[in-house]
Every structure is written in structure tokens, then in C-alpha cells.
């Protein structure tokens, strides 16, 4: 994973070269494919990028592009097997007229490159930093999966005995307003917009109810747990979550966060994250390590 990430980082720094394409180069091409002199669907593309030698396209195509320079045009012929998955070209000879638009080459990983392009001075330091970042990201991702799994498990094993009608009506109205906004952006009336999505108005009303029940159920469970455990949106843990959201979505400005998403949405997000953290901190769960043998 570290090597793959470093190769991607180097590829992102690839610079144009004047010589012909070599294995590992990022090449941009235009091509037109013909069968018996006629073009066919899917046989033409402009500004198509691929790395020579990574198996992204046919081997014959890659070999044909080798040593081609920017601006050069040539024909590459491919004989497709009769059992090829695409009936359009299966068992046929396809001639591709290829024009190279650009050839870019990734730099070599050296101490000099690391010093010039990163916050580190040696290749080893840089590799360690990539490893640490990947590890940090993996842990954060695993934690999010854990939170979502725990919360989904709780939802699926909870039952609402009675849905407050006022809350249901409010959630339905919220869903419809969002859809009306989408309709307005498409310069359409709500009914026309809904039908353009292949949904009848009866089915749309059913979707509104489904959304409302799911939202109200979540809100009731969150509030129920917070009340039972003496949690509030003003306690230390909730304020820490608020700070996290502000930094992530509003560059440190709470007013901007609230203005962008609304006070209700912000409070609901904080409540959900607060309860998720509580569940993980107090639940028993299995965390099995992957078998790397």
C-alpha cells in the first residue's frame, strides 16, 4: 500500500517529456477505431489517459504506443478473439488511428526530490510519513465503520411504539421542501419533477412517509438515550463534537456552520455523533484482526 501510494504521488507530479513514451509514462491520446473502414460505437475517444504498462488497455495497444511522441499519429491493429466479451469487435480486425496528445513522466524518488517536494529530507523519512498517514486513515475509517455498524444495529433492534404525528408531519414537510428545491433547480413543478424520476405521486407520498418514520425513529432514539444518560448538547463531549464539525465544515466559524446547514441540522448531527460515541464506549463487541499470514 505504501509503494502504491508513493507511485501515485509521483505520478501526480509527472511532467511532459519530448521523447517517446516508455513503460510507466502517463500518456494522453485521441483514437478512432474502425472495422472495415467504418467507425463503431465505443471505438472513439479524446483525451484518454493511461499509464503505459499497467494493463489498463490492450497489450497490443500499449505496445503500439511505445516510443510514440507528442503529436505523432499511427495506426494500431488489433485482432479480437471470437469469444471476446464485446460482440461489436469479437472476431474482427479493428484498426485504431492513434494520436498522442501528451507524454508525461513521473520523477524518480530520490532524497533530492523528497527535499524539494515534501516536508521531509530523505526517502526513508518520506516512506515512513506515507506509512503513518495510511495507518492513520485506516484507523479513522475502521472507527467510522464501527460507529455506523453499532448505530445500524441499534436502529434495527429498536421499535417505536407510537410515532408523534406532529413530528411525522414536520419530517414529511421537510422531505417535500427538499424535493421542491430540486424541482425548482430543474425549472419544474414538484409533480412534474417527481414523475420525471419515474415515480408516481402515490409512490412519492409513500416515500415521504418512509423518510419521516425513519427520521423520527432516529430522533426519538437519540433523544431517549441522551435523556436516560444525562447527556446534553451543551456538555463537554457535545461541545467537543461541535468544535470538530465547525473546524471540518466551516473553517472554525460556528455562525457559518449554522448559517449553511441550519441550527436543527447541526444539533441533530451533534446528537447523533454524541450517542454513537457513547455506544462504542459502553458496548461489548468483537474486533477481529485480519489474517496476514
State which percent range the strand residues make up. Answer: 15-25%
Euclidean distance between termini CA atoms: 16 Å
Secondary-structure element order, N to C: HEEEHEEHHHHHHHH
Q: Please report the number of helical segments.
A: 10
Number of strands: 5
Largest sheet: 5 strands, antiparallel
| CA-based shape | extended
Query: Percent of residues in helical segments?
Result: 40-55%
The assigned structural class equals alpha+beta
Mean pLDDT: 93
Radius of gyration: 28 Å
Low-confidence parts lasting 5 or more residues at pLDDT below 50? none
Compile the SSE list and pairings.
Layout: H1 2-12, E1 15-16, E2 26-35, E3 38-51, H2 59-65, E4 73-79, E5 93-105, H3 111-117, H4 123-156, H5 165-185, H6 190-196, H7 201-228, H8 236-250, H9 254-261, H10 263-282
Antiparallel strand pairs: 1-5, 2-3, 2-5, 4-5
Structure description:
With 293 residues, the protein is α+β, with helices and mostly antiparallel strands. The chain contains 10 helices and 5 strands. The chain has helices at 2-12, 59-65, 111-117, 123-156, 165-185, 190-196, 201-228, 236-250, 254-261, 263-282; strands spanning 15-16, 26-35, 38-51, 73-79, 93-105. Strands 1, 2, 3, 4 and 5 form a 5-stranded antiparallel β-sheet that branches. A hairpin with a 2-residue loop joins β2 and β3. α1 (2-12) packs across α4 (123-156) and α7 (201-228) crosses α10. The longest helix has 34 residues, at 123-156. The radius of gyration is 28 Å and the shape is extended. The two termini are 16 Å apart. The mean pLDDT is 93.
